[in-house]
Amino acid sequence: MVRNTRVIHKEDASYPALLREIPDAPARLYYKGTWTEELFTDCLAVVGSRHMTTYGRRAAEQIVGEVASRGVTIVSGFMYGIDATAHKAAVDAGGKTIAVMPCGIERVHPEYQKDLYDKIIETGGLIVSEWEGDSMPLLWTYPRRNRIVAGLSKATLVVEAGLESGSLITAEFARKFGRKVFAVPGQITSEVSKGTTKLLKEGATLVGSPDDILEYYGKKRASGQSSGRASGKNDLEQKILDALQKEPFEVDLLARTLGMSASTLGTTLSLLELQGIIKQEGGKYYTNS
């Protein structure tokens, strides 16, 4: 595992080809981790709100986990919220991820994400910055970082964004660079869906499942290949899963929907939870697929 800081110059043969194409490409990049050209073959930028909802987090985990497991490198900006969720989902899926920092390469920002920072390096990913030393991030360094996030990537995926979100800056860079922009549709009543709605109106490609992205990268699952949905379940278990695939439910409402008592339902929910097929969060049950 490489923890020492190294530097790569724009003139070097292993400098990322897609990044070299953009206007004002960084003259040099400082990095920690193991730099391989394969890491940059298929990159997807994943950005979104720092104030993500449960829906946004689950969407990011599901989409990024599947995409990363298929060999697409996830690139993001290491901030809390969707950025950190994307990095973690990639690592948890056994994939690779690149964190582009808005500060000097020697600084971990935010500092409380040090464990995630270390995990990215330990699993063959990279920490990258345009700046040496331990300089603090400033207002102007974030959009400079965003251009690198978009510049490294064949496409950018936006998962939840307000109208003033920096994620829209990354999406705009992607468009200027001639790259694909994907967006996850959100709840129309949510402030953090207004930015993604705007992107969709302007022509971004709607993402309803990981396959929408995998197809673009030529990695779509074969017909009939499972994405992790449970199989071999009895009728009640399948009814529960079918209902939770549509939306999360509190146990009482789920019981009424399925026409049974909450006590009867409770045992089956507990078994499915123990198997890791569903989980409970905030008083509601969700599927893990």
UniProtKB/TrEMBL annotation:
It holds the Pfam family WHD_DprA. Residues 231-284 form the DprA winged helix domain. InterPro entries: ArsR-like_HTH, DprA, DprA_WH, DrpA_SLOG, WH-like_DNA-bd_sf, WH_DNA-bd_sf. Gene3D superfamilies: 3.40.50.450, Winged helix-like DNA-binding domain superfamily/Winged helix DNA-binding domain (1.10.10.10). SUPFAM superfamilies: MCP/YpsA-like (SSF102405), Winged helix' DNA-binding domain (SSF46785). It comes from the Bacteria. GO terms for biological process: DNA-mediated transformation. Residues 7-217 form the Smf/DprA SLOG domain. CDD domains: HTH_ARSR (cd00090). Belongs to the DprA/Smf family. PANTHER family: PROTEIN SMF. This is DNA protecting protein DprA. It comes from Candidatus Wildermuthbacteria bacterium RIFCSPLOWO2_01_FULL_48_29.
